[in-house]
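Note to self: keep these together.
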Amino acid sequence: MSDFSKINLQVKKIVDKERIGEETELMKNIDVFSNLTDIVGMEKEQMELIVDRMPELHRASRQIGHKNSQTACSLMQMTMLSDSPLSRMKQCLAQLNKKYNAVKDNYFRVEKTKIEIKQLENNRDESSQLRIQEYNASIIVNQNLMTNALRQIGMYQDMYEAIRKNNNIPIKWSESDYEKQEIEHMIKSLFRLAIQDLHQTNKCSKASAEYSEQLGIHPQVMEVRTRNYMADIYGLLESGKYVDITNMHKFLDDMVIEFGDAYKIALKRVGLNEIGSERFMASNDHITRG
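Structure:
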């Protein structure tokens, strides 16, 4: 069983115990809110109302307590940042690692907190009792963080698999497979940047000119191709025809066909025979043996 699977099982046990009724009782037992009445100058009835509403905070936080919605993750992060399936899968992997580390960190934080609570339980002094209250409150927060992180892990796993299957990518793809699609991804990114530049300032930026040269494409040729495309689109719009985003996607695909081998010119100029080093790319065979 992997480390993540072990942690996942323990986290599930923790999260399963965390029910709204238990949260309400814990909040009342902690007595933090009743003590606050003397500090912040609120009436007892006001604090009781706040306490009664606290379970909804935890329930709602479990539902939408994460930073980005699933819609934003699916459309804005996956679509706008990448033009190739493997690059989008790489984004999923980056998010999965981030969320896994969040689960792992919060899991061990909760377990350490439980140990500290046990060590303090036999102490009757006020300081120890206050620390127990503080630790119990922190456990609820960390459990909610773990719940949200686990749900996002599941979401990114589903997205990863959907992208892979819908693009006929083998389960055991390799670093070599990823590198082979990088040129296509970069060319599309270049011309998308050029469209954005011309749309915003009517001139190509220094960044797009440098990007173009790095890919072996003459900057002026890149600009002319982009201006011609935009002129065609404006012509369609002025004639009252509907234009959807697939027009731009086709333009980007056409640029890959035209300039797909231009990078070889850039490689030759800098004295390289290949992109990276095929001998030192990770392979599934190496992973299996390792």
